[in-house]
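Sequence design from tokenized structure. All designs in this work follow the same two-part layout: the structure record, then the generated sequence. An example of the structure record is given first.
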């Protein structure tokens, strides 16, 4: 209103996913994590909300506006912030190791063998695309059609057991991969180790049982 000549906005609840900054006319920050700003600073475009780059869609801060003049004006409110997320992370490897396969055999590539994730909250497994660059000791095919090469597939394809590897040639090799989320790319490898069939005991913490008592063995205790 015309009767209010000046206001001081005191921040009573700070934003959770960012901070308020106040600059001067020379673009120099004069208050970081500002707990207050004035109506003159607001009208001069000196008050900024700076997002912390987290995957958050909304933020807010609570404020109390007071007039330092004799008008005796007070207002309490909440300022809501909608955040438009953008793709700013590259895919990174989450699981994987050496892929073991029988000489001349075939085996599904699963998410235990190869999984890339993306920190961008809107990126889905179907958005993470693998392109094979070179396969020195075999080939990758569609699981539902083992004779059709699968040169480009998604993390969703891996998760749903659609990707099949067939071994041929040397025992050891590295599959060169190019992984993209549609905007950012990563390079990766899948190590292939072929061998005769074998049985391996997986590590476990064993089982604890009292003297003279019994305990049920589960696959957590004994897994081959």
């Amino acid at each position: 209103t015309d009767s209010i000549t000046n206001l001081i906005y005191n921040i009573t609840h700070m934003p959770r996913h960012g901070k308020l900054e106040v600059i001067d006319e020379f673009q120099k920050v004069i208050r970081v994590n500002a707990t207050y700003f004035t109506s003159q600073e607001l009208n001069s475009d000196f008050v900024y909300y700076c997002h912390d780059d987290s995957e958050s869609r909304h933020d807010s801060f609570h404020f109390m506006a007071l007039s330092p003049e004799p008008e005796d004006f007070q207002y309490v409110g909440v300022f809501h912030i909608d955040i438009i997320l953008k793709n700013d992370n590259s895919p990174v490897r989450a699981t994987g190791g050496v892929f073991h396969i029988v000489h001349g055999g075939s085996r599904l590539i699963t998410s235990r063998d190869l999984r890339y994730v993306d920190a961008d909250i809107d990126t889905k497994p179907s958005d993470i695309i693998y392109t094979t660059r070179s396969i020195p000791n075999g080939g990758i095919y569609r699981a539902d059609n083992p004779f059709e090469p699968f040169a480009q597939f998604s993390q969703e394809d891996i998760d749903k057991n659609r990707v099949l590897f067939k071994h041929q040639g040397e025992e050891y090799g590295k599959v060169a991969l190019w992984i993209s989320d549609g905007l950012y790319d990563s390079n990766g490898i899948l190590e292939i180790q072929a061998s005769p069939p074998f049985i391996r005991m997986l590590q476990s913490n064993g089982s604890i049982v009292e003297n003279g008592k019994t305990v049920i063995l589960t696959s957590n205790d004994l897994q081959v």
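The CA atoms of residues 97 and 202 lie 15 Å apart. We note this feature because it recurs in several other targets discussed in the main text.
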